[in-house]
Design goal:
This protein is α/β, with parallel strands linked by helices. Helix content is about 45%, strand content about 15%. It is globular and about 45 Å long.
Length: about 240
């Protein structure tokens, strides 16, 4: 029986995406963070990309000044890590980035990027910032995450979310569960996220020892129809 309470991290990137469409001041992602917290969000999540397509540097610093937990996603580029060290979020997740991608395309390749990841992890942990790595749910990636010094792993759920048919989805859910068991055995915290929505989140939320789910696009999209507070509340209820 599942006994842990899964935290909800609300990613506010796409509030900033809407603002950047006009290069205006509204809607303000920092104000959105306040609404999300009032509605029960346990963490505010944002991704400061190198191309600055949504969240901007000023947003990050303001978010880190707010009460409550701020979780930052960013690449391993030294200049991005330096910004994180200045802003001082509560935690950082290192993610892959590609200039032309619409959204993150999967977990970070720890085999080819081990040196860059290791350097970034070391710099962040020296500053007492908790570090997670966004990985595909594979045993090798979990083990490498541990060897590189990560505190947590965030399991990429896109293969599960996009799986065609019940059998394929069940198989992808099992991959997530097995990766979670291994991470727990190795002393790593477990988060998950990517492409989750109101229709597919419940089975993932029931993965044993899962600490948090980070969800953004589905919540912001839902908020267009019901408002941000209600959208967060509805997602929070699905995790209970």
């Amino acid at each position: 029986m599942k006994t842990n309470t899964v935290k909800l991290g609300v990613n506010i990137d796409h509030v900033a995406t809407l603002r950047q469409a006009r290069r205006d001041v509204d809607p303000d992602p920092v104000a959105a963070a306040g609404v999300c917290r009032q509605a029960g969000a346990d963490m505010i999540v944002c991704h400061l990309r190198q191309d600055r397509r949504h969240i901007q540097d000023a947003d990050l610093f303001k978010l880190c000044d707010l009460k409550g937990e701020t979780h930052l996603e960013l690449s391993t580029a030294p200049e991005m890590v330096a910004l994180a060290l200045k802003a001082r979020p509560d935690s950082v997740c290192l993610v892959p980035e590609s200039p032309r991608e619409i959204t993150t395309q999967g977990g970070i390749n720890l085999k080819t990027q081990a040196k860059a990841v290791g350097r970034a992890v070391e710099r962040l942990k020296k500053a007492d910032i908790e570090v997670s790595l966004f990985i595909d749910p594979e045993a090798g990636s979990v083990r490498l995450s541990k060897s590189l010094g990560a505190d947590l792993v965030e399991l990429c759920t896109s293969a599960y979310a996009e799986a065609p048919g019940k059998n394929r989805r069940a198989a992808e859910l099992e991959r997530l569960e097995l990766a979670g068991y291994l991470a727990d055995e190795m002393g790593l915290g477990i988060h998950a996220g990517h492409a989750l929505n109101y229709h597919n989140v419940r089975p993932v939320a029931r993965i044993p020892r899962l600490g948090a789910l980070n969800i953004g696009f589905a919540i912001v999209a839902r908020s267009v129809f019901v408002g941000l507070k209600t959208a967060v509340l509805e997602m929070k209820l699905l995790l209970s």
